[in-house]
# Entry
Amino acid sequence: MTTPNPLYDDLQWRGLIYQSTDEQIPHILNTPRTVYVGFDPTADSLHIGSLLGLQVLRRFQQAGHRPVALVGGATGMIGDPSGKSDERQLLSVDRLRENVVGIERQMRQFLDFDEGPCQAVLVNNFDWMRRFSFLDFLRDIGKNFPVNVMMSKESVKNRISRDGGGISYTEFSYMLLQAYDFVHLQQEFDCSMQLGGSDQWGNITAGIDLARRLHGVQLYGLTWPLLLKSDGTKHGKTEGGSVWLSAERTSPYKFYQYWINVDDSDTANCLKFLTELDREEIQDLEKQVAESPERNIGQRRLAEELTRIVHGDAGVKLAQKATEIMFGGEIGDLSDATLLDIFSQLPSHQIDAQKLNDGLSLVEAFVLAGIAKSKGEARRAVEQGGAYVNNRRVQDVNYELTQNDLASESVVVLRRGKKSYGLLRIS
RNA sequence: GGGGGGUUUCCCGAGCGGUCAAAGGGGUCAGACUGUAAAUCUGAUGGCAGCGCCUUCGCAGGUUCGAAUCCUGCACCCCCCA
# Structure
């Protein structure tokens, strides 16, 4: 009979428990623990894929455990073969250092680093790995890894059986590094549990084995299922590339929009996995999505919650206001400041006031504003009814912009199709 | 070492001397329908000027009034026999 644990129950209800190394884990979580999740520093910003890990850590912290966020500065140099089909591109040391700095900053939005018993800790495994000599590592760590066991891990097996690239010795060794991370964190911070996506299972258990052999310590691991969309693809990829957490790479508006556009069938899952809304509220939203999906209530709430966590209240406000304007009617009677604020992430182009007076063709304006690659493309858009000035459709190919087309003191808002906007600033 | 096949527009893939800016499919973009959805349907899809010009069919030359289509050389890829 295990002692029920509120955190574990909640995780279970949310569907976040995929595999567990020990059935005693709910019981174990009844005393404060130090737990860790690893993050890849493949870019100077985290993207949506990392949200889940951050939120899980946050849940643990709020339940009274101490979260350790490990940035893989060292392991990032090697490349985790798990879930990858090809050998990974190695990052330069400098590149990695920059990435780690950027990621650290973002972590602070999720975890509480203020002093206290649950104070979050941020570590970079490069800090301890760099001091390890190759010989020491082989003697102290490598010795404890039977190759036949390593070979039987899914991540390795998948790569070895492939006729193509196979796996390099470097990536093959990846799991030793991650295993040692776990052991190190146990020694340093008394960290006793590692959390990760289901693709991390092999790496987590490798760490547990190593700790037992090396120090006779019992460690634990939990994995969550990979958050996939109902069509089986990963979250966070759009036509424009990944959805990032940094406002510079993905504007709050775009971030918000990503979640607004989540499929009905994926909404409940996202709410459970990623938000901190409670059970009643999520069930209520689920019901509303089922009853009147056209109202997008679940998506709206999801977008709002996540945008708030990542970009704050100001970000939410900006995103919602932008949404209102972008998907509303005609644009007019607005101030420059409002428009520029909302459309700050959009391509824009300065033009001379004189040019507007001389007559600027709509087609040319589309090219200038960067929403059409060529005049031919712009012309097509107009002919097909996909061109808008201040959200008002214009179908005349020979249309010329004038002062009357200003939406505010000095801005004209051009739009192509449903969602692609560009600005023209008159000066 | 010998023999054969290939390299086409974003991708796949037809074309085999003029009617080819190049079939078809995918993708992408736009429109209709919708819920800023899915599915579906329609249109567009080298550039510039509007029925004309310019740049494209691995690379470089050549034969022709005219080549993606023929010839020569080069590069890369694949297959078969040793």
